[in-house]
Amino acid sequence: MRFVVPILSLVALAVMFVWALSSGQLNKLSVAADLSWLTGSVPYLLPVIAAAQGLAVYLLMRHGKPMTIPIISTVVIDPDSAPSEPKTKPSQEQVNTEWVLDALAGGVIVANQQGNITYMNASAEKLTLWQRDKVLGEHVSKVLKLEDLQGNSLGVKAFETNLAHPNHPLQFGQVKLYPRVGEERFVELNTTCILEHCKAIVFIFRDVTADRKIINRLYRQASRDALTDLMNRTSFEQYVEQLAHDTSTLTRSHVLASVDLDNFKIINDTCGHLAGDELLKQVAQIFRRAVRNSDKVARIGGDEFAVFLEGCGLEKGRHIMESILTELRNFRFSWEGKVFSIGASVGLLEFMPASNIQIKQLFSDADKACYTAKALGRNQVFIHAEEKREEMSNQRVHDWGKLLKDAIREDRFILFAQPVVPLHSARNQHFRQYEILLRLPFRQALLNPGSFLPVADRLDLMTSIDRWIIHKSLEMLAGCRGDQQTQPCQEIRLMINLSGQSVQDARLFGYVEEQLNHFGINPGMICFEISESVAISNFVHAKRVMNALHSLGCHLVLDDFGSGFSSLSYLRELPLSYLKIDGNFVHNLVSSPVDAAMVKAVHDVGQVMNLLTIAELVEDGETLVRLREIGVDFAQGYYCGRPIPLVQLRERMKNERDVQAKAA
C-alpha cells in the first residue's frame, strides 16, 4: 500500500508527457501525430489519477502502520534547546521501547552539557521519587543525590568526570542514592557520553538494595556464630591476622585472650542442650557488656570463647578479663527451677604486630595459658609471657603432681575439723558434729583445698585423696573411743566430702565397708557430703553410691544446695539426711533480701522432705540470729567455731573422757 502513491505519481507524469507530445509541444518528435487520440482524454485522465492518489493516502493513513521511530527521538532531544511539551501522542513503539528500557537498564536520566536534565524514564522516577515532568530543565545534582560508601558526594563528580573523559564509559559500582523523601537506597551507577562532542550524558542506575541485604545476610551467616551472634572462629582468626600483620601500628600492642567456661558440662548434661544454648547466649551478653567497643569477641566452639583487645596493654587486658571473671562468678543461671553458678579460666597473650607473625602460634600460646589457668585452680587469669615462663608453668604443674602423690604416700596432708553447731535446743544430740577439712603443708604454710584440689582432679588423684581422708578419719574415731568402750563419752559424727571421681568409683562402697569393719566404727557416726553439682552431673552413679552407703547406716548430705537448686524429683530419689545451704547465700543473708529468700526457700524444701538444714559460712552474730529466725537447724562458720586439727580434737576428746572417768 505504501508504494501506491509513488506509482500513481509516475503514471501521472507519463500521461502529462504524452499529452505534451501529442499537442505539439514536442513537435520535433515524429511520434506526436500517432498519439493524437490521447490528447482529448488527458483532461479526464488526470483527475482520475489525482483521486486515486487521494484514496491511496487515506487508506494508508487509516490501515497502514508508520515506520519505526528510533528511541533516540524520545530520549535525546536537542541538548541546547529548552525542553518543550510533545505535540503528538507517543506511538506504541515508543511506549514498548521505554518499557524495555525500564526493565533492562533501571533508572535512566539524560543531561546536557550544562547539567540540565533533558530526559528521565519511569524507573528513575520511582527510584528518585521526583516527577519527571517537573525536573526537566533542573540540574542533575538536584535529582541525583549520590554518595559513595564512604559518604563522599558523587553526583557532580560523576558529571564532571564524564565531561573530562568523553570517550570512556564510567562504572562507579555500588553507591548510595538519596531519594526526594524516605531512606537511602543502594544503586549500581554507570555513566557515559552520547552524541558528538559529549553533548549529552546518560546516568544509568540499578537498584541493588535488596541484593545488598541478601549478601550482607549471607556474609553475616558465614562470619557470625548462629547461636550467640558473636564472631565465629574463621572470621575472628581472619580479623586477628589482619591486625597482627598491620605493621603501620608497630607502637601498639594487642592482647589475645582464650576463655574456657567452668561447670558448663554439668548444666548441659543435667538440663539438656536447650539449657546449654541459653547459657551460652547469656554469657555472650556478659562479654559484650564487659569489653570495649573496639574489642572483638568470638565463640570458638562449644563453651570456648576468645577475646581480642585491640591496642591494649597487658595490664589493661588483665583488668578487663578479671572484670569478666567477676561478672561470671556473680552470675546465676536459672533453668526450670534450677539455679547454677559458673566460672571461667582465662589465658592471656600480649603481642606486637609483625609481618612474619604466625597466627596459629598465637592461638596455641593463648590456649596453653588457658589450660594452665585451669590446671592451677580455675577461675583465674594466667598470662603467657615467654618460653621460659611457660616452661616454669608446666614444671609447676608437674611439681604439684609429685607433691600431691608424695603427700598421699607419706601422710603429709593434715586433717582439720570444723564444728557444726545446733541452732535450736531441740537439735541438741548426744554427739557432736564436725566437717573434715583438708590442708596441705607447703613452704611453711598451710594451703587450702582450692589451691591444690583442681590439680589433683586433673591428675586423677581425687579418689586416692578421698580414701586417705576416710582412712584417717575413721582411725581418729577409733583412737578417740579408747580401750574401754563402756566409758561414758560424747561421740563424734564426722562429715566427709566425696569428690566427683569417688562418686563414679565402683569400688568406693567396698572400701568404706572394709574400713568401717576394720576400725569397728558405727556407720551412723559417718556422714558423707556430696555437692549438688557432682550429684546432678553424675546422678546415676551418685544415686547408686548414696543408696549403698545409706544401706550401711551412713548419713548423707547434699552440699552447696541452692547453687544448682535441683528439682524436688532429684531430692526424692536420694537417701539424704541433711541439706547444706550454699554459703554464697548465707554470706549476704542480712544485706540481701534475695539471698535471705533463697535461704528460707532451701530450708522450706528441707522441712517438706523431712531433711535437716545446715548453713555454712556463718561469720557474725547477726547472721546467726537471722538463721534462727528462719528456722535453719545447724550452722557452720568461723563465728560458730574455727577449724582445729583433727589430732587436737582427738586429744581434747580423750581429756574429756578422762575427766568424766575420774568424776565417775
Describe the structure.
- 32% of the residues are buried.
- The chain is elongated.
- The longest helix is centred in the middle third of the chain and has 23 residues.
- The protein is an alpha/beta fold and 664 residues long.
- The chain has an 8-stranded mixed beta barrel with strand order 14-15-17-18-19-20-21-22, surrounded by 4 helices. The protein has a 6-stranded antiparallel sheet with strand order 2-1-6-5-4-3, with helices on both faces. Strands 8-9-7-12-13 form a 5-stranded mixed sheet, with helices on both faces.
- Helix 12 packs antiparallel against helix 13 and helix 18 packs parallel to helix 20.
- It folds into 4 domains: 60 residues; 125 residues, Beta-Lactamase; 160 residues, 2-Layer Sandwich (Alpha-Beta Plaits), CATH 3.30.70; 252 residues, EAL domain (TIM Barrel), CATH 3.20.20.
- Pfam families: EAL, GGDEF, PAS.
Brief synopsis:
This protein has 664 residues and is an alpha/beta fold. The longest helix is centred in the middle third of the chain and has 23 residues, at 387-409.
Keywords:
23 strands; Beta-Lactamase; about 675 residues; alpha/beta; Alpha-Beta Plaits; 6-stranded antiparallel sheet; 27 helices
Outline the secondary-structure elements:
Elements: H1 4-22, H2 36-39, H3 42-63, H4 72-75, H5 92-105, E1 107-112, E2 117-120, H6 122-128, H7 132-135, H8 140-143, E3 145-147, H9 155-164, E4 170-178, E5 185-194, E6 200-207, H10 209-223, H11 233-244, E7 254-262, H12 264-271, H13 273-290, E8 296-301, E9 304-309, H14 314-330, E10 332-335, E11 338-341, E12 343-351, H15 359-375, E13 381-384, H16 387-409, E14 414-422, E15 431-441, E16 446-447, H17 449-458, H18 462-481, E17 491-497, H19 500-503, H20 508-519, E18 526-531, H21 532-537, H22 539-552, E19 555-561, H23 568-573, E20 578-581, H24 583-587, H25 593-608, E21 612-615, H26 621-630, E22 634-635, E23 644-645, H27 646-663
Parallel strand pairs: 12-13, 15-17, 17-18, 18-19, 19-20, 20-21, 21-22
Antiparallel strand pairs: 1-2, 1-6, 3-4, 4-5, 5-6, 7-9, 7-12, 8-9, 10-11, 14-15, 14-22, 14-23, 15-16
Domain GGDEF: 252-386
Protein name: EAL domain-containing protein
Keywords: Membrane, Transmembrane, Transmembrane helix
